Amino acid sequence: MSEVRQALVTDHRTIVECVRRWWGDSRTPEQAHELSLLLPKLFLQFFSGTSLVLEDDTGIRAFLVGFYSADDEDEAYIHFVGVDPALRGQGVARGLYTTFFQRAAEAKRRHVRAITSPANTGSIAFHRAMGFVLEEGDHRIDGLPVHSDYDGPGQNRVCFRKELTPRAGSAA
Questions:
Q1: Contact yes or no for 115/123 (Cβ under 8 A)
Q2: To 10 degrees, what angle do helices 29-36 and 12-22 make?
């Protein structure tokens, strides 16, 4: 039976191994390793309370690393999400996002942000289906608003924003 729980610092090594394994089918080992570098341990040292893990008796099957902004009390951010390829297309990522949205709303966050590469059409479609809107960028690629050099020279990104519905009992 699968269970969603708060991430732990001790999950870091396993999550990094999952990224390298789960993306190994679509990337070279070097590219999968490079992707795993987007998840330094500090994310679980400082944001485990807002990050999620889906686990069953075989281990970690999915995760979401997200946090609440320290500078803007209305904002939350989803940094990285991974789902075991055997579970993709079964609503697992949708469930993690929904749990994150609910918890962020309970923490009185009003917006959730996320980014992806303009080439990641699957991620763009998923975020749109989850109710995110694309934020205007400084140019367009294939009709998509793109933010040039967002993550450094040549690292263009599509930026998303989702408005959260305030939870009952929270201030609007």
A1: no
A2: 150
User: Pairing relation of β-strands 133-134 and 111-116?
Assistant: unpaired
Distance in angstroms (rounded) separating the CA atoms of residues 62 and 54 = 5
**pTM of the complete model beyond 0.90:** yes
Six-digit token pair at 154?
């040549």
1, HSE (Cβ side, Cα atoms, 13 Å): 2
Note whether 124 and 116 are within 8 A (CB).
Answer: yes
Structure-token pair, residue 44: 């679980």
pLDDT tens by residue, 55-82: 999 999 999 999 999 999 999 999 999 9
Of the candidate CATH numbers 3.40.50.970, 3.20.20.150, 3.10.350.10, 3.40.630.30, the domain formed by 3-163 belongs to 3.40.630.30
Give CA–CA dist 84/151, Å, rounded: 26
Q: Give 120-167 pLDDT, tens digit per residue.
A: 999 999 999 999 999 999 999 999 999 999 999 999 999 999 999 876
Q: 3-state class of 9 per DSSP? A: helix
Those residues with Cβ within 8 angstroms of residue 70's Cβ, 6 or more apart along the chain or in another chain: none
